[in-house]
Amino acid sequence: MTNEDIRLAGPADVPRVKAVTDAAYHHYIERIGVVPQPMERDHAAAVAAGQVFVTGDPVTGLVVVEERADHLYLDNIAVHPDAQGTGVGGRLLRFVDAHARALGLTEVRLHTNALMWENQKIYPKYGYEVVERRVDGPYDRVHYRKRLG
Predict the structure, then answer these.
(1) pTM value?
(2) pLDDT digits (tens, 9 = 90+) for 51-70
(3) Distances from the Cα of 146 to the Cα of 14, 19, 65, 87, 106, angstroms
(4) Using CA atoms, how far apart are residues 45 and 42, in angstroms rounded to an integer?
C-alpha cells in the first residue's frame, strides 16, 4: 500500500467510514464508561469538509484530519479489527505526516483516551511525544505531538 492507495473519502464512503469507526472503537465503551467521541462524530459532515481519507476496498482504515494554523490535527484514526496488525495504521500515520508536509505544516497533534493504553504504546513508535494529560468533560486524555523534520 502506498499513499496513492489512500484517497479522499466521498459521500458513498460515509456508511463504511461509520462502520469502520464503530467497529474500531466499540470495545472501548465498557472500558472508558462512555461512547468514544469518534463514534459520535458527524461522519457525513467530515467527509463533505474534505477531512476524511480512507484506504481499502471496502474501506478498512481511515483518518480524519483538520488543518489548523500551525499544525495538522489528527482527529481520528480507525482500522477495522479485521485489518488490525496488518500495517494499515502505520501507513495511515505516515500518510498524515506526508499530508501535513504537503500543507506546509511542521507538526501533527492528536489525543487519545488515557484508558486506551494500546494507543499509548503505538504513537511513540511513530515519533509522537506526550505533551500533557488533561480531563475534557468525561474524557481523560493524553495529548501528543509530532514535530516533522
Answers:
(1) 0.94
(2) 999 999 999 999 999 999 99
(3) 28, 28, 14, 20, 8
(4) 5
